[in-house]
Amino acid sequence: MADHVLLMSLYSGIVSLFFAVLSRREKGEQIRLFLTLFLGLMGGGLALAWLMFFFPSGPPAPIP
Fold first, then answer.
1. What span, in angstroms and rounded, lies between the C-alpha atoms of 31 and 38?
2. I need a surface site. Which of 11, 40, 48, 63 has the fewest CB within 10 A?
3. What's the N-to-C CA distance of the chain in angstroms?
4. Which tens digit of pLDDT belongs to each residue from 1-51?
5. Which residues, 6+ apart, have CB-to-CB distance to 8 below 8 Å?
């Protein structure tokens, strides 16, 4: 699990940095957008993982 969270945070950081640098000119706005995107991506990923916890992880049902 720690590997997945590490990779998700690395991906979120790179994507957030990319969009923050390309879309804002002032340093303060870049930092604010970076944090907003980073926390949104991490929070969304963790929320989706938490919701998927309630689905069964067994083999798929046979097709008749």
1. 10
2. 63
3. 35
4. 679 999 999 999 999 999 999 999 999 999 999 999 999 999 999 999 999
5. 41, 42, 45
CA distances from 24 to 5, 17, 21, 37, 45 (A): 28, 11, 6, 13, 25
Token look-up 């340093």 returns 27
Which amino acid is located at 38 in the chain? F
Q: At residue 55, what are phi and psi to the nearest 5 degrees?
A: -90, 145
Phi and psi angles of residue 26, each rounded to the nearest 5 degrees, phi first:
-85, 145
pTM higher than 0.85, yes or no? no
DSSP code for 64: -
